[in-house]
Task: structure prediction
Amino acid sequence: MGKPLRVLVVEDSEDDTLLLIRELQRGGYEPVFERVATEEAMTSAIAKQTWDIIIADYVLPHFSGLEALRLLQKSGKDLPFIVVSGKISEEIAVEAMKAGAHDYMSKNNLKRFVPAVERELGEAKMRRERKQMERELAQAKEEEFRTVFDNAADGILIVDTESKKFHLGNNAICRMLGYSPEEIKNLGVMDIHPEKDLPYVINQFERQAKGEFSLSRDMPVKRKDGSVFYADVNATTLKIAGKIYLMGFFHDTTEHKNKEKLVLDANQRLEKVSEELSAAKRDLEQKNEALQKAGSELEQHVKERTAQLAAANKVLGVTQQNMHTVIKNSADGLLIVDDNKIVLFMNPAAEVILGRKAPDLLGEPFGLPLTTDKPSEVQLVAADGSVTIAEVQAVRTEWENEPVYMATIRDITLRKKAQQEIEAANEQLRRFNDLKDEFVSMASHELRTPLSIIIGAVKLVLDQIPGKIVPEQKEVLETAMNNLGRLTRIVDALLDISKIESGKIELHKTNIDIRGLIEETVGECRRQAEEKGIRLGFRVPEQPLDLCIDGDKIKQVLMNLISNGLKFTPAGGSIKVECKAEQKEVQLSVSDTGCGIAEQDMPRLFEKFAQFGRKVGPGEKGTGLGLAISRGIVELHKGRIWAKSQQGKGTLFTFALPRLDSRDIVSELLEQAVRQAVKNNANAGVIVMSVKAKGQEEEEQVQRVLKEIQDLVEQNLRRNTDNTIIQNTKEVLVVLGNCDVAGAAAVCQRLTQTIECHLVDEDLSSKLDLLIGYAAYPDDGKTSQSLIEKAREAGVACLPSNKV
Amino acid sequence: MAGTKLLVVDDEPDAAIILAKTLRARGYEVHTASNGLDAVTMAKTLTPDLILLDILMPGMDGTEVAKVLQEDPTTRNIPVIFLTCLITKKTQQIGAHYHDTTKCTFMSKPYDLDNLLVEIDRLIGAHVG
Result:
């Protein structure tokens, strides 16, 4: 009886197959076989039945030994696979063996066949038994493993490395985490760590899974209740049924960690203390060094100083003596007072001034003020009642290295007295001056009143009102009249000069064309000149010559000079009045062809009552004050006056008046008005008018219009405290003296209407813009500048191109 | 000119007489007052066409008279010529009440008669106009 053998033959040839079976029989086997020649057949054969061995040809028409081998391997069965092939080559043999065949032989040499089969069957059996053993071992191992696993003190988690989900957890980990084993199976790595630590944990996990390292220290682990503990996790990879798991051993290190921390802290503190000690030691060493260094330096220093002092002392020895002399003999008292006001030192002069001896005051408090910025005046009353006035001033300084005050005290009794006397004298002078002015004023009033009555009375008779008079009566009365005139002139002159001398004259300046003034004055003198047979003429420049002057007063000067000329020029002579414009001033001159002035009289020409011995016509004796008054007036205008003369030939009087530019004129006039307002507690106003051309062609018109406006305004202004000026060739300014806001507004309105009418008449209203604004002191400003600006700002357009 | 009423105020009787005579000779009807109070009364009753007012008077002086006359509507518009020997602070202040030189002038004594006559005409003329 043969051994049963189930053989699967992969062979296309029936014959070859039978050959093999016969061999097997001869070898003592009882083969049960099936021949397959295609993949499908083989597949179903394998599935249908268990086989003990597979014999395969290498090359088949629709199949191959290699493919058969692969099919067997795919099935997972471990069967001997022998290749029996017609073709033999080492290559094919190697290929088949490499693929996993157990043996290879040639069909033509089947001698080896049965032995190979036997061998392979035997090996297969062995393989099977070993596997079985392994399985049992594994089983036993697993149980062992299980025991260890469940009873371990450390927590153990087996984690699927891919899904990071828990496969298994031991009792310990369950206790540690607070979950049951079943709950554990539903959790994963993500669930047992604090969220903030997850990235770290996962990173560690993956590296452990890769095998980079096994131990992760102090991993934070979250319990079911949310509390956190720390554990060292030792992980190793594990393969279970072909899948890779990570097995992690969790060792709670919290306590350990705490203990560790304590030790670390203690260590740190220890280190710190140690450091500090070292630092202190270093510091001490350094200080020691420095001290030693300083010590030696000091020695050196002292040596040097001693030498210096010795030298200085020698020098000092000499000057100290001098210093002492100075202090001792100083007429001013010198005291040293410390910060507590105790007197440390005083010189003899201080003793005298204070009336106390040094021993009495040294160490006592100093009772006088110690001002350092300016001197203080004090009164000292001596024991005998005499009063000394002293001046005390202190200076900060050092006395034996302490800060002290050095006070200088000076007896100023005499000085004070002198000052007081001067003050009293001044006061008296002032009073006298005022008295004089009052006297002069009163006197002139008292003189003028009867004068005025007498003149009126004489005139009445001369005019034959009370009755007709005969020629002789007329003559006599005319004499009286002339002298009355003269008397009036003297009184006026006296008053003038008195005012000039006491500086009480107020100039009422206005902007005047000097040429007009000259013409007017000359006109007034013409009759007199004609009567005397003297030619009187004047010459003025062609352009307007505005000056900011008190017209009346300058006229007075001109009159004075002209009448002087008329007085001292014989018939047939001539007098010429001229005016010349320089850059900064205007010069007016009056020249005559008269008898001239003697050289010795020239120096006193402009003095009071300087009358010169001269033959003068009847009724022509002057006041002796004319030139003095003229000089006073000219100098009040900040001008100057001088004369040139040649005896027998003639005299030339010239006076110069400063020119102001229009801006200064405005300031002058406005300031004058404001000054007056301040003085009289009244108001002053200013109106600013500006004209703007609408287009280019109208530019030239603007100048002309401004002049016209100025003329219009001047015609409309009725008071002599009002002035108009053209400023900057752009604006017409009107200065209104003694005018408040309401007044300024009224004037403004009146002027506006006038100007508007004028411009409409001239058909300029569409070509020009007119702005008018006003401001008054003190409401709108307190200085001339601020008033002008305010008036300018307040400018309102008033040309009515659209007004009805 | 006929029938034009003038009021002359001056505390010096001679001055008033002489001026009155002078003006009457030229055809004016001239009244006189010798103190401030009378001046005010007469101004109110007479309503003259012009007042010649002396400033320096004892008691109520010319400036005060002017002030009183300003306050009364019947006398407010009467032009005034102030006659004075003295230009003082007080006399200057009178200007504050008269914005307009159509209403007043200052003339100093002794005055020029021709000038005075011209001023009288001017002021009366302006007033009437």
Summary: Chain B touches chain A through 25 residues (CB under 8 Å). Helices of chain B lie at 13-24, 36-46, 62-71, 89-94, 113-128. The radius of gyration of chain B is 13 Å.
